Amino acid sequence: METMDGRIDSPELEQLYADFEANSTAPLWTQRDDLMPMTPAPAAVPHVWRWSNLYDIAKRSGDLVPVGRGGERRAIGLRNPGLPGTAYATPTLWCAIQYLGGHETAPEHRHSQNAFRFVVEGEGVWTVVNGDPVRMSRGDLLLTPGWNFHGHHNDTAEPMAWIDGLDIPLSNYTDVGFFEFGSDRVTDEASPNVSRAERLWAHPGLRPLSGLEDRVNSPLSAYRWEHTDAALAEQLALEDEGYPATVEQGHAAIRFSNPTTGGDVMPTIRCEFHRLREGASTPARHEVGSSV
Prior knowledge:
Keywords: Dioxygenase, Oxidoreductase. By secondary structure, the protein is α+β, with helices and mostly antiparallel strands. It has a domain at 51-223: Jelly Rolls, CATH 2.60.120.10. It is 20% helix and 22% strand. The mean pLDDT is 94.
């Protein structure tokens, strides 16, 4: 029999455990704590990456490392110190700073991983998603759902830097990663101010009757900073007027949504934007989801 401290004190039981191993099996009673822990025990740790440092190394990479086939993107992944041996920011998110120099083109490709982009520096870049050119500007949130061909081209002499976020860790864990090369150039080098997706879907509270079916991913490719900024500013203004508009005192927040469902923009990634008044603070809280 097996004792309370896990020692085996009979030849029959010792043979049983040997047969477990020989038959590629494992008894649950020896693994319950690992398979179903009483509480999470995350390996990832809280960490701050300073933008000034990130932009400096991104700019130096732009001076020294060409963009194009092979590496495909000049993107510098954020590595969580608690996840050695990976390039993951959290157990479920890969996050990077991507830098595109003046008049550069990042060739088209597609992958099964879902992606978002948040522009931090620069103007004059277009991302082409499934043939639809989408303007990128500072503060914009842009979506590239899985298996959409996409590339980027910079029409100016100045660089742009943005934050990339992808569900690569989750995709790798579930073994659903696919990748395919596309055109060496973007398929449409036009530079419209408004993309076709926005012309159809970016009208507040209005849904085209040609698109009544629900979609897993948001069909809206860009969420513009002017709308995000205005929504946050109005929450704080309403708070000043005595109306309950903020999530807590001095804390305005919005969630980007899929206009066909009202839910999250993609099934594996939630996107939000928060603004704190000067001097405001938020209470500590526990969450099981990870964020960047």
